[in-house]
Amino acid sequence: MLDSLFQKIRTFVLVIFVLAGISISAQEVEEKTKIDFQGNYRVRGFNLGRDIYTSRQTPVTPYNRSDFVQQYNKDTLTKYQNELAAREKGYPSTLSPQKEDTTYYDARMTLNMNFSTSKYFEALVGVQIGDIIFGGRGVNQSSSVGPGQGGEATFSSAVNMQTNFLYLNFKLPEKSFTARVGLQLFTSAQGRVVFVPGTGVNLTKDIRDWNTTIEGGWFVAKQNNLTDLDKNTFADKNYQGSNIYFYKIKTSFFNNAKHELYSFYLDDNLRDIQDVSGVYGLVSRTSESNQLFWHGLFNEFNFSDFTLTVHGIYNHGHVKSLNPYRDANGDEIQRKYDLYQIKGGFFDTQLSYRYNESVSVTAMGSGSTGRPGYEKDGTRSNLHGNGYRTLLPGYSLSNIANDFTGGYALFSGRDMSGLYEYGIFTDIVLSGPLVLTLGYYRLYGTKSPLIDNNRFYNEENFYHTSAYFGQEYNLNLRWSAFRDMQILLRSGYFVAGNGLKAYLDTTQGTILRELFVTAEHRF
Q1: CA dist., res. 159 & res. 152, Å (int)
Q2: Which domain of life is it from (predicted)?
Q3: Where are the beta strands (DSSP E) in 269-415?
Q4: DSSP state of 387
Q5: CB 134 within 8 Å of CB 106
Q6: In CA terms, which of 44, 260, 352, 476 is 20 to 30 Å from 109?
């Protein structure tokens, strides 16, 4: 019933868009096309080091411990025999240390072109070249396609351009109404639910008398309507895909307060198989269909020298997830899908205090309900026990623990299920355009990760789980050298706790560190 309702909504929106365009065509006065170019060029230099994994490398499924230990010992012996044979023949070592200290550079350019033909219509296309790594991605790591390819000293280069935006804006200035159709950026408050480019429709209406903006729309995250797996020249199924519907109401009834009420609905019936592999074989296999809601309320209050933001999200619905029958060794013998009811929450709060024109201090906390990691049967823990499911978020809390800006990142917004992070940072204006930021953060699991299926970090090896994932120190330095030029130094030092080692199933390593310098020119 919901499927047919949302299909009718999509059709109605597109029909209104076409009819509105026809109705103003007779009124439109011919104008010259105006073209506006905007973009930026960025170059970065990185120095990174770590002695611990950034993602899990062992399977999350049940296993036979004696068989695993026997196979592990056999593989270890084979590695050392191969190393000995290589050394005897004068060949390079076949083993490398389980740590890294690496330096590299990359460059990227974005270009947005806006075409305005009248006060009613404008179109925008945005492309990105790179990030291209100086010298390429390394031996046997390069490909001929992808925005991060190329960089080697040669005239034959990879195709390294991607399209970020491609949309048409239809505007009715007299009605304070805008309709945008095509590839565009879809967002929620602070990017906590959605921050991703997608193809769809976004309708915006300003109600100026109430100081309110209403948005609504839909975009297609993924679709399989044109798939022909059996090669009979006919599409296998219709209405197969992942569709996201939303509305947002932004208000500011008082000068010192801003509010945003929103909801997102995910209708996903793809059930595509997603495999993740690691050093020790297949880590996880997931296949799901989802009908989930996210309802959020964002508030920002400004009181003289204080700024307070309070943001809460309620997630509910149901998920059908792959949970196959397994034998005593944990091997899949027959596939089946189980139904899980989802009820979870996400919180986000931040309090900032401006001491004077040069110094400000901010305390923050962000996290969700549930448990990180996997259950004893190999299913994700966020399917159980008030687990919170993420949609397509994009945000950064600190430089390493939760980040998507470059360098190391233990978690991204999409992984913040059953985790919370809190910390404090200060911005200090050293001299004019030079700003120093110092920060300290701690990362925890809302509950301790389970270690029943861990191969290394387990109770048989005398290790115990913990909710403490680690602590992080940040130092950033931003220099606005010119009006259109900025240089940024970002650094982080993360010390892992037992909770992270339990989550990653590793007994070695503790430290991740990063430092990178960015020079960005905007035009």
Answers
A1: 13
A2: Bacteria
A3: 274-278, 281-286, 288-303, 306-322, 325-326, 332-334, 337-354, 359-368
A4: P
A5: yes
A6: 476
Q: Among all chains, which residue has been given the structure tokens 């005239």?
A: 155
* Amino acid found at 287: S
What would you report as the CA-atom Rg of the chain, rounded to the nearest whole angstrom? 26
Helix (H) or strand (E) holding 28: none
* Domain extents in the chain: 2-23+47-103+176-226+236-522
Amino acid at 33: T
DSSP letter at 286 equals: E
Q: Are the C-beta atoms of 252 and 298 separated by less than 8 Å?
A: no
- Give yes or no for a contact between 450 and 487, defined as CB atoms under 8 angstroms apart: no
How far is it, in rounded angstroms, from Cα 277 to Cα 109? 32
Q: Does the predicted model carry a pTM greater than 0.85?
A: yes
Q: Which residue has the tokens 């995250």?
A: 221
Can you spell out the DSSP letters for 80-92?
HHHHHHHHHTTPP
CATH architecture assignment, domain 2-23+47-103+176-226+236-522 = Beta Barrel (2.40)
| CA angle centred on 46, ends 40 and 51, rounded to 5° | 145
Asked if residue 480 lies in contact with residue 450, where contact means CB atoms within 8 angstroms, the answer is no
- C-beta neighbour count of 236 within 10 angstroms: 13
Tell me the residue length of the chain. Answer: 523
Distance separating alpha carbons of residues 409 and 412, to the nearest angstrom: 7
Q: What is the largest distance, in Å, between two alpha-carbon atoms of the chain? A: 85
Pairing of strands 468-482, 100-116: unpaired
User: 378 phi and psi, to 5 degrees?
Assistant: 90, 0
Evaluate whether 375 touches 381 at the Cβ level (below 8 Å).
Answer: yes
Contacts (Cβ under 8 Å, ≥6 apart) of 332: 285, 324, 325, 326
Interval 287-340: pLDDT, tens: 999 999 999 999 999 998 999 999 999 999 999 999 999 988 888 999 999 999
Give tens-digit pLDDT for 448-505. 999 999 999 999 999 999 999 999 999 999 999 888 999 999 999 999 999 999 999 9
483-488: long-range contacts (C-beta < 8 A, 24 or more apart)? 484/521, 484/522, 484/523, 485/519, 485/520, 485/521, 485/522, 486/518, 486/519, 486/520, 486/522, 487/517, 487/518, 487/519, 487/520, 488/517, 488/518, 488/520
Return all residues near 472 (Cβ < 8 A) that are at least 6 apart: 398, 399, 400, 401, 423, 439, 440, 441, 442, 443, 492, 493, 494, 495
- Compute CA 50 distance to the chain's CA centroid, rounded to the nearest angstrom: 22
- Amino acid making up residue 34: K
- Single-letter code of the amino acid located at 422: Y
Integer angstrom CA distances of residue 302 from 80, 244, 307, 356: 63, 33, 5, 16
State the DSSP string of 130-180. EEEETT-S-TTT--SBSTT---SSSSS--B-EEEEEEEEEEEEGGGTEEEE
CB 306 within 8 A of CB 351: yes
